[in-house]
Amino acid sequence: MSEHLRTALRLAANGLPVVPLRRGKLPFGNCPACARNACGGRPNMKTAGACGCPAPCHAWAAATTDPHVIASPAWAQAWQRAAAVAYHPGGAGLTVVDLDNPTAIAWARATLPATRTVPTTRGEHWIYQGTMPSANAVRPGVDIKSRTAYARWLGSGTGVTAALPDSVRALAKEPAAPRRAPQSLTGPLGGGGGVCPHRTPTYLDRGVAMAVQRITEARSAVHATVYRTFLAVLSTHGRCGCLTDTHVGRLFTAAQAKGESPRHCTDAWTNALTTLGL
Question: Which residues have C-beta within 8 Å of that of residue 14, sequence separation ≥ 6?
Fold first, then answer.
């Protein structure tokens, strides 16, 4: 087992979705089935970070915490040729402010709240808890890596991870996160608190039953299927607060019966919430 593969498995066990990088800090090219986007980009790949391909295709979207995928034969050749390990910050609920030179570092120290800092080849990564859109060149020497980006793993760094501040969100012209009223229902990592548009409980029960069936019948790409199913359920029922512990428990039970760990279920649920802005 290569050192990069060992590192990747360790990071994945700690909740960081990982993907191998080749020389030049670049992701591996898509497999023949996905070359030139022949696969259509995979369902939800562009927004959700869920790549259904067994190979490490589609860059950041292929990042995963699933040790069976990471150590699979489909990924083996990539790990043998890998020059580094990367992770998907948004998939771990993080944002990386990539400071590329001493001037950018000086700006950050004078402007941004202190947080966990990781030295890079030419500068520093400042890591915050929370996600936002990724954006390049938000100011000279400063990039933001979060929901649709990968960051090279360069160690755990020093300091305590701070909450993502509005001053960083403003760099990508994203408004401050809105304050939400407490939810009246308590589904794990639950949905919103709006008015329920469903006339009878049967509609919700039928939707959850269909979601459970979809997960149960998955024959491949189980991790991606679970994520897409969670996303579909939340897009329909997540904003009104009608999902209860029982409903979400049925979904998690079905996913775990297909081999997903409780952590993977929670990661998929959290990523779906983030994608939908819940």
Answer: none
pTM: 0.62
On whether the CB atoms of residues 11 and 87 are closer than 8 A, the answer is yes
Q: Residue 247 in contact with residue 206, Cβ under 8 Å? A: no
Q: What are phi and psi of 51, to 5 degrees?
A: -100, 125
Amino acid at 245: D
Q: How is residue 36 written in tokens?
A: 């030139």
211-232 tens-digit pLDDT: 899 898 887 778 888 888 888 8
Classify residue 100 by burial, with Cβ atoms within 10 Å: 0-12, 13-18, 19+: middle
Please give, one letter per residue, the 3-state secondary structure of the chain.
Answer: CCHHHHHHHHHHHCCCCEEEEECCCEECCCCCCCHHHCCCCCCCHHHHCCCCCCCCCCHHHHCECCHHHHCCHHHHHHHHHCCEEEECCHHHCEEEEEECCHHHHHHHHHHCCCCEEEECCCCEEEEEECCCCCEEEEECCEEEECCCCCEECCCCCECCCEECCHHHHHHHCCCCCCCCCCCCCCCCCCCCCCCCCCCCHHHHHHHHHHHHHHHHCCCCCHHHHHHHHHHHHHHHHCCCCCCCHHHHHHHHHHHHHCCCCHHHHHHHHHHHHHHHCC
What does pLDDT average to over the chain?
A: 82
Tell me the mean pLDDT in the region 110-128.
96
The two beta strands, 94-99 and 142-145, are: antiparallel
